[in-house]
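[step 3/7] fold_predict: job queued, chain A
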Amino acid sequence: MKNLIVGNWKMNLTIGQSLLLSERLKNNLKNPTSDIVVCPNYVSLAAVSIDLKDSIIKVGAQNINANDERAYTGEVSGPMLKGIAKYVIVGHSERRIHFGETNKTVALKVAAAVRNKLTPILCVGENLHQRNEGLAGRTVTDQLEENLSELTHKEISKIVIAYEPVWAIGTGENAEPFEVEKMIKTIRRFLINKYKAKIVVSIKLLYGGSVNSDNANAYLSIDNCNGLLVGGASLNYRQFTKICQL
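[step 4/7] structure written:
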């Protein structure tokens, strides 16, 4: 299957800056070897979506509310994202840590994305304490068990999973490729045991965590790693272009 490279722009860039970045990516990404997705902030999402409408680059959102309709100030629902985004990031550790999102909340958001024909990019990963205690694998499989609990077996095939060790996100610390390979195998084994191989064979497993143009190839070379979720490096069009053309 073709790799998937996702750029998470997080809470960065004005509309003008976002459009400049999307234009530069359009002009430089001519024949990427992977499928490409960029996820702007909500202020810039519609403008970037229009700008990239006829390009090979797809657009994703950074968050979604679990409800399709509700009087919630400041929230954005799945129906609002239809026609603007194809993907949506769900369960990112920054949402879990800073905004109190629980595994149950994440499960409902994953279901909301699938219900609205958006592809959820479900983020899972252990923190430093869990890693040091030897609980990384158990932490991630427990997250998957709960985060996928609102989906039917048929719907499971409609997701993307990104392994992002919390201790490596935005810290400059990198997980060693052998560690990532071990976790990717753990995730794939969990999916096969729970949902059967023929259902989960098409699920892409990504790695994210201080990914840049210098280390990206090492992660993409890992068996069963189907792409990358890129943070800060996706704001630099030269770096992101290089990653997308590996």
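[step 5/7] annotate
The first helix runs from residue 15 to 28.
Residues 4-244 form a domain with the TIM Barrel fold (CATH 3.20.20.70).
exit 0
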